[in-house]
């Protein structure tokens, strides 16, 4: 990793670097940039990969469920699904439990792309977290999961 510029090095001494929300946001920005770079070879970005990955699973989510789970505005999910559908990677199918809603399901091509993209995303994640031990990675995962999915 390159040595930080003098200005950034001086900024690291600021009180902001003790702010948990800032650290989470900065770490997210670093991980997001690495993930987007790794996914670009598959024609995806982190958000479209997230939708495709969830559509490739067994959950058969509705667009509303995708928006809630990914913490995105529903209009953003519509746009992401529209793009993936245009590319032949997902389909909207009637929800058997609610005829007024559709579920988003990956096509065979979408499942194949999601699998290949998952490998690229994991490799990028490994590079971003390379300085952490396996134990620290697991602890970080557990802590972030607790924050992301608090028990009711």
Concise account of the structure shown:
This protein is mainly alpha-helical and about 150 residues long.
Write the layout of secondary structure elements.
Layout (H helix, E strand, L loop, with lengths): L5 H6 L8 H20 L6 H10 L7 H8 L3 H13 L3 E6 L2 E9 L1 H21 L5 H15 L4
Descriptive keywords:
single chain; 7 helices; 61% helix; 10% strand
Radius of gyration: 18 Å
Kindly report how far apart the N and C termini lie: 41 Å
Overall SS class: mainly alpha
Which percent range describes the beta-strand content?
Answer: 5-15%
Give the number of helices: 7
Low-confidence stretches: none
Helix and strand run: HHHHHEEHH
Shape: elongated
Number of strands: 2
Largest beta sheet, briefly? 2 strands, antiparallel
Helix content: 55-70%
Average pLDDT taken over every residue = 93
């Amino acid at each position: 990793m390159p040595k930080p510029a003098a200005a950034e090095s001086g900024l690291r001494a600021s009180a902001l670097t003790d702010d948990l929300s800032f650290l989470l946001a900065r770490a997210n920005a670093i991980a997001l940039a690495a993930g987007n770079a790794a996914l670009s070879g598959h024609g995806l970005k982190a958000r479209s990969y997230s939708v495709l990955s969830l559509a490739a699973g067994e959950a058969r989510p509705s667009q509303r469920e995708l928006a809630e789970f990914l913490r995105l505005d529903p209009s953003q999910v519509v746009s992401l699904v529209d793009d993936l559908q245009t590319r032949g990677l997902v389909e909207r199918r009637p929800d058997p439990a609610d005829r007024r809603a559709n579920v988003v399901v990956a096509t065979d091509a979408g499942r194949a792309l999601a699998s290949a993209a998952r490998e690229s995303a994991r490799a990028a994640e490994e590079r971003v977290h390379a300085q952490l031990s396996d134990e620290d990675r697991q602890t970080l995962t557990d802590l972030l999961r607790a924050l992301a999915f608090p028990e009711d």
